Each structure stands twice: as C-alpha cells, then as structure tokens.
C-alpha cells in the first residue's frame, strides 16, 4: 500500500505489533439494483497475508466497535452497519491455516431524492389519466391527453435509466413499474379511441345483443340514465325488461353516446383499481 514505508510499527513485549497508517483503498463491489432506489449494497474488504501462515502471523479483529464519527456524510448513501468476521482457511497446497479478517460494509441508498423527483411525480402524472375518462368526447382532448401522459412517463423512464448502473443480472422493480404505467397508458389510449369511435357512430343501427347484453347491464352498474327515460336512473328500475323497452324507443345516436359514457365510467373504476394495486405491489416488493 502507498505510504506504508513512512510509518513505523509499534512492537510490544507481549509480542503484539501495532502498525497504524492512513491509506486509501479502492475496491470493486457488485451492485444489485433490483430494489432501486430502496436498495442496500454490501461491500466486503478482506485483509490477510499470502506470505505468512497463521502460525507466523495471526490477524485479530478489534473488539471495540468501528468508529464512524469522523466520516463525512454523503448526499446519496449512508452506512447503517459494518460487520467484522474472522475466517481461517486451509488451502490444498499447504497444511498451515491462513487467517483473514473481512469487513462487510452495508451501504444504504437515501431514496428521498428519487421518491420526491421521480416516483411521486410519475404517480401523479399517471393519476391524471383518470381525467381522460371524465373529459367529454366533444372536447376533442381525450386521446391527446393520454398520449401526452405516455410521453411524460417515457421521459421519466429515461431519467431513471440514466441514474442506474448498467447491469444485465438484475432489472429494477421501478422499471417494471414504469413499463406497467406505459402499458396502462397504451390500453387507455386504445379505450379512448374506441370510445370516440362509438360516440360518433351516429344513426348506425345498434345490434340487439349490444342493447340487451351490454348497455342495460352497464347502465345498472355505472348508474347511468337510460336513453329514452331520463327522469329515472337504471339502478332504481325494478324491471329490466322495462329498460330494454325504453332502449328500443331511443334513437341510435343516443344509444351509441350512452354506451360510450358507460365505458368511460367503467374505465375509471378499472383504471383506479389497477393503478392502486400496481403501486402497492411495487412498494411491497421494494
């Protein structure tokens, strides 16, 4: 090590030798980014001798705890714990034991920066996707809002990828989270395109199976007023066949618009449940 020759060893009458000198040791530690930015890394430092065996040189870890009071704090990492372990290894070439002392340094990432600047904004931007289902079709902004959210999430994904060390052994859960959100945005875009298409179908004939099998059940579930009977809601009707009769008396344009509204309301429910469940799963596996 650099600088060892400038310091003297202290030899005591009991045979113990203290050799204290300052130095800088650089080590390569494997990085596991699976739980990024809530990850904890472990770096090991092994001290031993290849020249002298255990009968000639014995290495003992200090009994006193490691003092970290003089260590300067880091903005991204902190050291919660350091473990010390002594090992005695016997190699096949030699009968003598070779002792070593290994320090396991636990380095924990401070996630506040990433939570504040990446995770929370990404969840808030995704939550805006609910507005896509609340916007009226006549506004003309439903599909463009979903596309804008998708582009914003793509930018956040690039920011996270730029902060991560390249690794082919593990994929961070946060990347799965962003891919999950991008998938939801893609599905939402598809739904909005279908809703817009349904809304503007005009006087095209509505098939009977859509009237009886889709519009009536969705009206009952989503509390949407039935076309042709605006004075009451579907959920208050006791006779479903009366609802079907009201639907038959409605125009095709009203029916298509009603179908687009109930799909939007169903989308709000599914989108909210899926988003909350996805965030909970990602947080629980961190």
From TrEMBL:
Keywords from UniProt, A to Z, are: Ion channel, Ion transport, Membrane, Transmembrane, Transmembrane helix, Transport
Gene Ontology MF term list:
extracellular ligand-gated monoatomic ion channel activity; transmembrane signaling receptor activity
Q: How does it sit in the membrane?
A: Multi-pass membrane protein
SUPFAM superfamilies documented for this protein = Neurotransmitter-gated ion-channel transmembrane pore, Nicotinic receptor ligand binding domain-like
Does the keyword section mention Glycoprotein?
no
Q: Which family does it belong to?
A: Belongs to the ligand-gated ion channel (TC 1.A.9) family.
Please indicate if the UniProt record lists Ion transport as a keyword. Answer: yes
**Under what name is this protein listed?**
Uncharacterized protein
What coarse category fits the chief subcellular location reported for this protein?
A: membrane
- What CDD domains has UniProt attached to this entry? LGIC_TM_cation (cd19051)
**In this protein, which residues make up the domain named Neurotransmitter-gated ion-channel transmembrane?**
118-227
A cellular component term (GO) from this record?
Answer: membrane
Question: A Pfam family in this protein?
Answer: Neur_chan_LBD
**PANTHER family, per the entry:** NEUROTRANSMITTER GATED ION CHANNEL
Subcellular location per the Swiss-Prot or TrEMBL entry: Membrane
PROSITE patterns given for it?
NEUROTR_ION_CHANNEL
TM ranges: 112-137, 143-161, 173-200, 266-285
| Organism expressing this protein natively | Mytilus galloprovincialis (Mediterranean mussel)
Residues of the Neurotransmitter-gated ion-channel ligand-binding domain = 6-111
């Amino acid at each position: 090590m650099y600088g060892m020759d400038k310091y003297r060893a202290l030899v005591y009458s009991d045979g113990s030798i203290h050799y204290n000198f300052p130095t800088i040791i650089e080590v390569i530690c494997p990085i596991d980014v699976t739980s990024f930015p809530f990850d904890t890394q472990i770096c090991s430092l092994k001290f031993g001798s290849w020249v002298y065996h255990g009968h000639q040189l014995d290495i003992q870890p200090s009994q006193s705890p490691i003092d970290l009071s003089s260590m300067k704090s880091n903005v991204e990492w902190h050291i919660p714990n350091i473990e010390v372990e002594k090992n005695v290894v016997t190699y096949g070439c030699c009968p003598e034991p070779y002792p070593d002392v290994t320090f396991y340094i636990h380095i924990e990432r401070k996630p506040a920066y990433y939570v504040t600047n990446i995770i929370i904004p990404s969840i808030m931007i995704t939550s805006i996707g609910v507005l896509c289902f609340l916007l009226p079709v006549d506004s003309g902004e439903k599909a463009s809002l979903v596309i804008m959210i998708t582009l914003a999430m793509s930018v956040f994904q690039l920011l996270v990828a730029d902060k991560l060390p390249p690794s082919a052994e593990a994929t961070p859960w946060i990347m799965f989270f962003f891919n999950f959100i991008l998938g939801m945005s893609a599905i939402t875009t598809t739904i909005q395109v279908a809703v817009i298409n349904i809304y503007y179908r005009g006087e095209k004939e509505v098939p009977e199976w859509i009237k009886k099998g889709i519009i009536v059940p969705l009206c009952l579930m989503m509390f949407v007023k039935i076309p042709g009977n605006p004075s009451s809601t579907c959920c208050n009707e006791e006779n479903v066949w009366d609802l079907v009769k009201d639907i038959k008396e409605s125009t095709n344009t009203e029916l298509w618009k009603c179908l687009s509204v109930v799909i939007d309301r169903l989308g709000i429910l599914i989108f909210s449940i899926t988003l909350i469940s996805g965030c909970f799963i990602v947080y629980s596996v961190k």
